[in-house]
Amino acid sequence: MTATEAPTDRSYAEELDAGDPLGAFRERFVIDDPGLIYLDGNSLGRLPRSTQARLRQLIDSEWGRELIDGWDRWLDLPMTVGDLIGTELLGARQGEVVVADSTTVNFYRVAAAALDARTGRRAILTDRPNFPTDRYVLQGVAAARDLAVRWLEPEPVEGTQPSDVEAALDEDVALVTLSLVNYRSSALADLPAITRLAHDAGALVLWDLSHAVGAVPVGLEEHGVDLAVGCTYKYLTAGPGSPAFLYVRSELQDELRNPIQGWFGQRNQFAMGPDYDREPGIRGWLAGTPAVFGLAAVDEGASLCAEAGIEAMRAKVTALTELGIALHDAWLAPAGFTLGSPRDRARRGGHIALRHPNGRALSERLATVGVRTDFREPDSLRVGCSPLTTRFTDVWDGLSRLREMTS
């Protein structure tokens, strides 16, 4: 993707759209209001047309006609869809990812399992800017086990650095857990370096990939990551409340214990035995009955992302956020905005944060003129760049309307 005009000329964005190798994917999504500039795909992705068809088929042909016989194919969906996400988007091996439950439940399960496997160590290491649900779960599991949470206080834009982690590590840390992409600033953590530092100190590592999957390559196997979780309704476009995923490295799957011993993790499940006998491997990390409709939607969204390719998606979101930053510098900085995201493209995820004292009011006003963004406390207006549906002209037009409000 190349452009010859200045970024402040709309023709620059038009040229980028014309050369966008992922541009055709937009036509495969429901665009109910063509006039809406939707820059909130980092919160909830658009609806794929294939998902509409898949859910209709599930209702009419599967549930409607097959009834309980549908379970012959539904039972394996958590594993097959997990393999799709794991191998195509996360750099995991087959049999290391399952799709089930919510990010919060999955985070609790793997965090509790990690802490139970490091008895004698009394501390959890995370950072204050971590996503709220992760912080709340950690506070709960720490209180239940009489452990301490060590809170890192990183620079708010650039995020937690390996040096921050290294300074806080010692032989008492059982678990290091961070978000790969910060939900507010879009800061992309150095996963290889932080994972290596934690392992050198004898700790296990848990990454929250909710704002990363579908926007950046992860490399779970390559970098020896122990545990990970993430949601599917952002860049994977699986819909509101769609089931999340969890990853457990193969070598740890039978060493760690799933703290929620449900019947879908039971060996010989339908024998209905009197005692829990965990199924080996990743299937043993299931708990309750899977949400079949949600899994079907995840399958469709993840399939689109796999078809596009994570490297191409990463290139697109990088170019979109680069355009947004250029327009911030030219149009918005003179109006009192500051950039709330890293300028280094290698350390930035799929959205940018525009900081302004009146950020909430501006985000609300944008919605009245057909531009949908979102706001995160205390002052960040987030511009989400979903690689399969966001156009360069969307970013240009959206920030142009924001400039008009503040000029």
Structural features, described:
- By secondary structure, the chain is an alpha/beta fold.
- The chain contains twelve helices and 13 strands.
- Helix 1 packs antiparallel against helix 12.
- The radius of gyration is 22 Å and the shape is globular.
Summarize the structure.
The chain has 407 residues and is α/β, with parallel strands linked by helices. It has helices spanning 10-18, 49-66, 71-74, 77-90, 103-116, 132-145, 162-168, 191-200, 292-308, 310-332, 359-368, 392-406; strands at 37-38, 97-99, 123-127, 148-152, 173-179, 204-208, 227-230, 245-248, 338-339, 351-355, 371-372, 374-376, 380-384.
Mean pLDDT: 97
- What quaternary form is this? single chain
Q: Secondary-structure element sequence?
A: HEHHHEHEHEHEHEEEHHEEHEEEH
Distance linking N and C termini = 31 Å
Structural class: alpha/beta
Number of helices: 12
Share in β-strands: 5-15%
Basic shape: globular
Q: Helix coverage percent of residues?
A: 25-40%
Largest sheet, described in full? 7 strands, mixed
Q: pLDDT below 50 for ≥5 consecutive residues: which ranges? A: none
